[in-house]
Amino acid sequence: MVTLLPLEKRDEQLLILNIYCSPKHKNVSFATLFSRALKDVGRDPLVIVGDFCANSILWWYVRDEKRGPKLTELASTLGLTFHTDSAYPTRMGNSTNRDTCLDLIFTKNIIHADWANTEETLGCDHCILNTTVTTTPLTKPHVQACPPDWTKFRKNYTNLAPYHETDYHAWSQSLLTHLRLMETQVQLSEATPGVDNHLLHLWKARHNLFRRWRRQKHKRKLKIRIAELIERAAEYAAQLADSN
After folding, report:
1. Which residue, 98, 133, 168, sits at the end of a domain?
2. Is residue 139 part of a domain?
3. Which residues form the domain of 191?
4. H/E element holding 131?
5. What's the pLDDT tens digit per position in 50-97?
6. Is 178 found in the same domain as 82?
7. For residues 244 and 5, what is the distance between their CA atoms, to the nearest angstrom?
8. pTM of whole model > 0.85?
9. Residue 132, class by beta-carbon neighbours within 10 Å (0-12 exposed, 13-18 middle, 19+ buried)?
């Protein structure tokens, strides 16, 4: 179990229990482990995450197995809050296997916790999941970045009247108006202090292809194009890191 120490005295420490259970161990019960963890944390916030390999029809498996129903019953008995949304599977299937919720998240003694599936896999079959536990803000709120899509702007912008035939102010305002229509709003944070327009464009293209592939998993060309975009984005990100 990992303990995240607070940055301010008035905040509580956050404890994280990360679990992996092999599907070979079919008779495993989490009752002892969960009960011991709850006893150790007391009233402190606790997050339980992991790959439980607990098959249940609630999480898009074909049938229930022994571990799945037992885990849901145990969580209910111990008063754990379940956050994984089965509408957004955490593990991607293939042309023969369906998408499932293999990775589960429970919390205890936490009032505000938000779960989100980024649907990003970084090349594996498990999605990256975000669980945000709300605490007292330690920094000033970040503003939104509005990077423009320059390629789309150059393609769609038409100068109706040359600047030498109109007032310079009117021409510049028209230019800015068209530019604002091509901007994408991105919320900045501690994890995302800045946005590079080209990298954002590559990642959005990969995300769109990935959503298409989830509906058409038999198309191998889509997987190849996704892999190419990931490689291009990784190379460009490395260039940005070196330049900074």
Report:
1. 133
2. no
3. 144-243
4. strand 129-133
5. 988 888 887 767 777 888 888 888 988 999 998 988 888 888 877 777
6. no
7. 30
8. no
9. exposed
The pLDDT of 109-118, averaged and rounded, is 88
Is the pLDDT at 234 greater than 60? The verdict is yes
- Structural domain tally of the chain? 2
Q: What average pLDDT does range 107-117 have in this prediction?
A: 89
**Tokens standing for 72?**
């849901």
CATH code at 15?
A: 3.60.10.10
State pLDDT tens for residues 46-59: 999 998 888 888 77
Q: Are 99 and 92 in contact (CB under 8 A)?
A: yes
128 and 154 together in one domain: no
Residue 52 amino acid letter = F
Cα dihedral 148, 153, 157, 161 sign: positive
Distances (CA, A) of 153 to 67, 147, 170, 172: 54, 12, 18, 15
